[in-house]
Amino acid sequence: MKVLFLGGFAASQIEWIAPLIESAVETSVVDDEHDRARVAAALGEADIVVSEAWRPGRPPAPHLKLLQLPVAGTDQVDRAALPPGVTVCNAYGHEMAMAEYAIMAMLVWCHRYFDIAVGFRAGSCCDSGVMNGPLHRELGGSTVGIVGLGQVGREIAARAAALGCHVVGANRTIGEPPPGVAQVFPLGELDAMLPLCDVAVLCVGLAPETRGLIDARRLALMKRDAFLINVGRGPVADEDALYAALRDRTIGGAALDVLYRYPTAAEPDIRPSRHPFHELPNVIMTPHCSAWTDGMARRRGADAARNIDRFIRGETLMHVVART
Prior knowledge:
The protein is an alpha/beta fold.
């Protein structure tokens, strides 16, 4: 069975996946997707491709039966461009790291951690209780609204509830509330949930129904001091509307671990947005790194390797997202 790691990102993940594959496989790597001759030759033989993307115009892959994504997101896969008879699976293991990031962002915001630490480093004690400085907040007792109660959202909910938060959620499917969640709103009733939230966390993937989900109208429904955390995808929150809301203090602030524009070989240092979010004092912005821990790499690599073994052995696959 021939397994191809296709693209620079997949090539960087081979150390976490290939050693854990128990079945007899022949692995190959093509890290440069633009080398069409090498890509065509490799795809001509591959039974399994490990890659985070499948783009239109790929050379024929006549033997391909499994596209194993080494990530959870599927927005870079053009399903219409895949050959017939291919199963697409993604991989998890990132949810714990992302949940910790979200909780960290909530605590940093409530306790004004950066402002106070930077001010004190510069010699100011104006925020000190000894100096009768201004009060900062506690996270406990806050209402945290989680948009998207998948694996990431559930991990955040459990941790927020353990810290004494009142947790509500909005989801595309409605069932029994997950542990720690007091109430689940249908995604179509997001307008009813947002005004309740001191903190709103976006965990949903990017899909036609979630693109621009948080627009100017919905931002205006939120509390003036509400804190928005986006660990999903940038375009879930409308780029122009979010920048305006943060600039004009329609909402209190945001932690954004998402990009609206990604670096490329041609523009490796491109800013993450057309707008200068990084200049706003009420924004914490990081380069899509919340999941990027050593624990995530181990768990996700094991997830992908286990699925490849299941495919080879003819067993039920995990995390199936599409079949062509």
